[in-house]
């Protein structure tokens, strides 16, 4: 567990953020840039041009060896041994009761090497569980928390490929969505993946901590004329919300299974062997989710926030809870995701905003989908 | 961080500009920066009675919602209607076009405006924000 009295860790780009005048915030034990100027402007820059993010707080856990694939097949809900080297997969780690302990992106850089990227707040838990679960199936695999060995810089937005392309020897036109490749970025060896958390095209660059400032500067300088700006966690949160992507601690947690989040497809029941949570998840798949994750668009300007009650039309009975809410810079109105009781996703809903019922329209997720 | 010397301040990060018994109120640049982009401001109604230290409105930013406190006792005589259409004025010009409401305060025994004794000077407020980091 991360103790709240511990001094927050600084990323390898801390001095860069200070020089840029970022407003810093303490997040999951790290000092992270919340915003550089205006989170709305940063959000819109990512939608229209590009944003540069420091994501070095994310956890990188390496699982290596001949038994790495089978170990992850048992430990996670996805079929990781089937992942083709060079590809990435969105997956989850669940408790035996099916509750979500983290959502993950797993990369397979080579046959016997997997990189499990965990949320910063869960990295220690995921690491510990991977060690335990690999041992319990006697997998010939090593598990290492390599978070300190990597910086992570994301460049996201419609012009991201145009900025990164000339700076790397990797052929980005051949780098499909959810694949990755090793290669130089600004002359420094990196693992570059076409992944992200913004709903835009973009890349995540995993590099050595000592190379982070160099690569950041190269992307920042090359991208400036194209409209790239540094973007903080505040913009990242509204970008992922518009894209309908869940955030651990909001839409995901130990009290829900992937099925409530509408992500039951990540659970691969047809993979070989047992996996942690299989029985409980199979039962939940059969009985149906206990809640539905819905999108809400507000008619007024007051913002539904995490934890606010959702009320049924007519009766005004509480039928759900907001998990995330924010003003949507793209749509110009407040939006929210909320868990509703099954069957309550019907017209006429309202959100109890500090004692006042504000009308809310059901909206299909995602709120925003980029044009391809 | 701008802290105009001719204004008075509160612990809740409001500023107060006094002209006779008419008192203009807004939030400070420090407050606006802490909040981030302001997206909605709920102001008291003209004619409403406000009480020093009591909430009389709300300021919503992308990340949070905060109560707006009245720094003085009195009657609301005007509100900044521009904020309805453009709440970002609070971030752009917190001391000028981002003002929020005006209150008519009573006179004290000397014919001066009756103001709470605990309003801060610019120097005192500057110290407060620096010690808050």
Strand order of the biggest β-sheet of chain A: 11-12-13-10-4-14
CATH architectural grouping of chain B: Beta Barrel
Q: Tell me the strand percentage band of chain A.
A: 25-35%
Which homologous superfamily in CATH is the superfamily of chain B? RNA polymerase II/Efflux pump adaptor protein, barrel-sandwich hybrid domain
Describe the sheet with the most strands of chain B: 6 strands, antiparallel
Give the strand order, joined by hyphens, for the main sheet of chain B: 1-2-3-9-8-5
Count of DSSP E strands of chain B?
A: 9
- Most extensive contact: A-B, 15 and 13 residues
Mean pLDDT of chain A: 96
CATH class of chain B: Mainly Beta
- Radius of gyration of chain B, Cα only, in angstroms? 14 Å
Short description:
The complex is a heterodimer of chains A (372) and B (133). Chain A is of the alpha+beta class and 372 residues long. Chain A folds into three domains: 9-56 and 150-242, Gyrase A, domain 2 (2-Layer Sandwich), CATH 3.30.1360.120; 59-146, Alpha-Beta Plaits (2-Layer Sandwich); 291-372, Elongation Factor Tu (Ef-tu), domain 3 (Beta Barrel), CATH 2.40.30.110.
Task: Please describe what this structure looks like.
The complex is a heterodimer of chains A (372) and B (133). Chain A has 8 helices and 20 strands. By secondary structure, chain A is α+β, with helices and mostly antiparallel strands. In chain A, strands 11-12-13-10-4-14 form a 6-stranded mixed β-sheet, with helices on both faces. In chain A, helix 2 packs across helix 7 and helix 3 (68-75) crosses helix 4 (123-136). The model of chain A has no long low-confidence stretch (mean pLDDT 96). Chain B is globular and about 45 Å long. The longest helix of chain B is centred in the last third of the chain and has 10 residues, at 122-131. Chain B has one domain (8-124): OB fold (Dihydrolipoamide Acetyltransferase, E2P), CATH 2.40.50. Chain B starts with 7 loop residues before the first strand and ends with a helix. Classes of the chains: A alpha+beta (372), B alpha+beta (133). At the A-B interface, loops of A face strand 4 of B.
